[in-house]
């Protein structure tokens, strides 16, 4: 809105009258091209409260007032005749004193201000004033001067460094040039090229190399400094120095060589002593290692005399003796523990007289040394095979696997053991006791049960 636009001095009265309470009322009468001359015009076109040219005039307590001068909450309707008369009045641009010659009807004033070239606007790049009342605030200029300002004087405009071709803000150009690697600078020693009298110029980045390798006026050490010659001179004087002090340099280098020979001989003697010491130490360690190997060999021979449990095979061949008595006495029989991967298991067989004389075969999960590294609960597929001693191709076989329902129904059977062994899981109708005692399975009152277990992925 036009009433929110300010001029360069910070005033906010470009189009409307601003009252003491900070509100904007009627149009500024002083902008009219033809002043109101008659009392009738003043009565019909000027607000009785703010004395401004009426905007949306209405009748209030027998007075014509601006629509914005009516108290809040009071219903009003505009006076159509007044609106049309006011709208047709000719008005000058509020920035006439700045040079704008525009004049037109009242209603077109706001639209004109949006395009007026004399209207103060903020710098599009956001540069700030460095002095005056607006110091530290964004600079304001007439709209018509913005292109020139951005091109020639705005400190935030982008310039191209003529040396490195990088884009730099105008206000940062001087600091940039002070550190620009491509900026030409004189030799710090003010050396000159042969045949010239002007100090040598070079890119700032090349100065260190110039001083280290080329500058004839740079102070340098004698090449024989490490041998004891402590002379420093300008680089251009080095050839003369080397020629004049050649005999001294030779004597210094020979002295240094003899000292190094002595040092080398001493280091060689120390290295020889160290080698002899290490050889003796190695011989002693070899004897100790031989002794340890001998003891280890004896331990291995002792261990090899024992029959190890079938670890990590997932299979156990279990020979059960005294079968008849176990069936008659309804005894539990446990196998030796065995491993499936890192899981420790144990088989169990019982003669279940509560299930029509059928053998109950189950598998128990036992405590092991790797329980803290394993994934619980365990899932597996198991196969029970009762070997046929007469016809090996006709064994009695049963296969089953742990399902999700089993894990939910019997979680205590497959979780990590807290006691010696978990309760067993298997089949309660593997084979009848009568069939077990048949000659093809029972030989010399013994049967052989093969248990195979295959681990399944966790659910």
From TrEMBL:
Residues 313-453 form the MATH domain. Residues 261-295 form a coiled coil. InterPro entries: MATH/TRAF_dom, TRAF-like, Znf_RING/FYVE/PHD, Znf_TRAF. It comes from the Eukaryota. Residues 112-164, 176-238 form the TRAF-type domain. A zinc finger (TRAF-type) spans 112-164, 176-238. The keyword Repeat applies. The keyword Cytoplasm applies. Pfam families: MATH_2, zf-TRAF. Keywords: Coiled coil, Cytoplasm, Metal-binding, Receptor, Repeat, Zinc, Zinc-finger. It is found in: Cytoplasm. GO terms for cellular component: cytoplasm. One of its GO terms (biological process) is regulation of canonical NF-kappaB signal transduction. This is TNF receptor-associated factor 4-like isoform X1. GO terms for molecular function: zinc ion binding.
């Amino acid at each position: 809105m036009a009433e929110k636009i300010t001029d360069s001095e910070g005033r906010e009265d470009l189009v409307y009258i601003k009252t003491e309470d900070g509100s904007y009322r009627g149009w500024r009468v002083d902008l009219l091209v033809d002043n109101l001359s008659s009392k009738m015009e003043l009565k019909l076109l000027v607000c009785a409260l703010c004395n401004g040219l009426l905007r949306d005039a209405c009748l209030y307590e027998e007075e014509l007032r601006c629509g914005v001068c009516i108290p809040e909450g009071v219903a009003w309707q505009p006076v159509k005749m007044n609106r049309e008369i006011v709208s047709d009045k000719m008005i000058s641009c509020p920035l006439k004193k700045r040079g704008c010659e525009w004049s037109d009807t009242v209603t077109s004033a706001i639209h004109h201000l949006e395009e007026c070239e004399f209207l103060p606007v903020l710098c599009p790049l956001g540069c700030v004033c460095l002095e005056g009342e607006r110091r530290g605030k964004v600079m304001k200029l007439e709209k018509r001067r913005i292109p020139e300002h951005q091109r020639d004087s705005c400190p935030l405009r982008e310039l191209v460094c003529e040396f490195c071709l990088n884009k730099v803000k105008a206000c940062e150009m001087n600091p940039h040039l002070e550190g620009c690697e491509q900026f030409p600078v004189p030799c710090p020693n003010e050396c000159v090229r042969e045949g010239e009298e002007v100090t040598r110029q070079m890119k700032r980045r090349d100065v260190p190399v110039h001083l280290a390798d080329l500058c004839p006026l740079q102070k340098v050490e004698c090449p024989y400094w490490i041998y004891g010659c402590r002379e420093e001179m300008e680089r251009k004087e080095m050839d003369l120095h080397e020629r004049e002090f050649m005999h001294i340099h030779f004597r210094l280098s020979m002295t240094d060589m003899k000292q190094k020979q002595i040092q080398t001989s001493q280091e060689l003697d120390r290295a020889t002593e160290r080698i002899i010491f290490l050889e003796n130490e190695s011989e002693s360690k070899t004897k100790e290692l031989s002794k340890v190997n001998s003891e280890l060999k004896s331990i291995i021979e002792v261990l090899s005399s024992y029959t190890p449990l079938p670890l990590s095979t997932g299979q156990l061949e279990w020979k059960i003796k005294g079968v008849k008595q176990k069936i008659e006495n309804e005894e539990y029989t446990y196998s030796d523990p065995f491993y499936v991967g890192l899981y420790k298991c144990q088989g169990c067989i019982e003669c279940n007289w509560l299930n029509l004389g059928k053998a109950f075969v189950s598998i128990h999960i036992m405590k092991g040394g790797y329980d803290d590294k394993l994934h619980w609960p365990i899932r597996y597929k198991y196969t029970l095979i009762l070997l046929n001693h007469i016809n090996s191709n006709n064994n009695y076989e049963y296969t089953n696997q742990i399902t999700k329902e089993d894990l939910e129904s019997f979680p205590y059977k497959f979780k990590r053991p807290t006691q010696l062994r978990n309760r067993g899981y298997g089949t309660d109708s593997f084979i009848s006791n009568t069939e077990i005692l048949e000659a093809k399975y029972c030989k010399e009152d013994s049967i052989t049960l093969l248990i195979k277990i295959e681990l399944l992925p966790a659910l």
